[in-house]
Amino acid sequence: MTTDAEQLDREIDQARRRLAAAQTAIAEKLEIVEKQVRDTVAGAQSAIDDVVTNVKGTVSDTADTLKRSLDVPYQTRRHPWLAFGSAVLVGYLLGGRGGSRGASKGNRFDRDDLYRHQLQQGLTSGVLNEFKGEIGSLRSAAVGAIITALWEIAKQSLSQPDGRKAPQEISRFAPTRKPAG
Description:
- The chain is 76% helix and 0% strand.
- Helix 2 crosses helix 3, helix 3 runs antiparallel to helix 6 and helix 4 packs across helix 5.
- The protein starts with a helix and ends in a 23-residue tail after the last helix.
- By secondary structure, it is mostly helical.
- The protein folds into 2 domains: 70 residues; 87 residues.
């Protein structure tokens, strides 16, 4: 019987060795998998950080570009002739609206005709006809103000970065003077 007991002890001992070897192999494989997972997570986190940094940079660049595009003084300094041409075009378009410059004698109404005309076309139309000359004057004043403002922008675009006037700049209103001496 000792042979059977010895045989059984040997099999149990071999099973324990196989079990220990399997546990060691599993532990090694788990360490390898854990390292791969850590590397993958670190790589993914690094890639995400890079993407976030790139997106932040792109958004910042786009915002700066948009701010520069909408900065009228900056664009006027960069493209003075385009700004001047645009100002002339806007002035022409605003100045050309509204039809006739003044009412002729044939278009004027006496009070009875004006009252009938207001009843027919409504109060708003009559008031607009009555103040047509004043509206034309306001339009002319607005166009003049726009042109004056654009002239000032053009003068500023000719000034040097430190705020001094450029030597070739000439004032539109003041005659040139010779230095006293």
